[in-house]
Amino acid sequence: MRVPKGIIRVVDLFEVIRRRRSVRAFAPEAVEAEKVAQVLAAANAAPSAGNLQGYEIFRVTREKERAALARAARDQFFVAQAPVVLVFCANQARSAAKYRERGARLYAIQDATIACAFAMLAATALGLGTVWVGAFDDAAVQRVLGCPDLLPVAILPVGYPAEEADPMLTTRSGSQVMAVHPSPGLWPSTFTASGTRSPFKPVRTICR
Fold first, then answer.
1. N or C of the chain: less Cβ packing under 10 Å?
2. Could you list the residue range(s) of the whole structural domain that residue 110 is in?
3. Looking at the chain, which runs of residues are DSSP E strands?
4. Residue 149, in any domain of the structure
5. DSSP for 111-169?
6. What is the CATH number of the domain that holds 73?
7. How far apart are CA 141 and CA 50, in angstroms?
8. Does 35 share its domain with 124?
9. pLDDT tens per residue across span 157-184
10. pTM score
11. In a domain, 3, yes or no
12. Mean pLDDT, rounded, of the chain
């Protein structure tokens, strides 16, 4: 569903989650600046370790840079097809200043990941399509963005889908949640998404 320009929709979160799909074909239509701003605001609202926001967001709109990102992403040329590409990078130094090695190794990457997930859901709520791109050459992405001191975590093409996807056509495997019983002598067990028990198995903002 297209959302009128300048309109903020109040939507059901679970419906947005259900409807989100990976889109790899984008219409040439430009994305309104108001919607891009709302997507970035959602990313900025994401939680982060120590509220440090240990990440940077690069907004790429010029065709030359979008094409370069597509090449850096192992020739996934749908990246260049999207009119807006957001790149989420971990600012490891910022997190390390407070949390040292763990901040650099984990927290900054988690911060960037959560911010990207928030952006994806906001885009879906606004009638836009996205796809999480994690296959890319780090150094090539850094060269395109001019950020050798940041670690690229995700490339997020954003645009209007070229065709509507039916959310009911995508199947998901049942997720499992491990419950560890505190009482002595009781083994952990897992529960499927339907709530039935199954046998225990070890479970191995800078914008440009």
1. N
2. 13-164
3. 55-60, 84-90, 129-130, 151-159, 176-179, 189-192, 197-198
4. yes
5. HHHHHHHHHHHHHHHTT-EE--B--S-HHHHHHHHT-TTSEEEEEEEEE-BSS---GGG
6. 3.40.109.10
7. 27
8. yes
9. 999 999 776 655 566 666 555 555 454 5
10. 0.79
11. no
12. 84
**How many domains is the chain partitioned into structurally?**
2
Q: Are residues 117 and 31 in the same domain?
A: yes
189-203 pLDDT, tens digit per residue, is 444 445 544 443 333
- 135 and 187 housed in the same domain: no
Q: Looking at the structure, tell me whether residues 148 and 48 fall in a common domain.
A: yes
Q: Is the pLDDT of residue 97 over 70?
A: yes
Q: What would the two tokens of residue 98 be?
A: 């407070």
Contact 198, 176 (CB under 8 A): yes
**Bridge partners of residue 75, in order along the sequence:** none
| 8 domain residue, yes or no | no
Determine, yes or no, domain membership for 178. yes
Task: Tally the residues of the chain.
Answer: 208
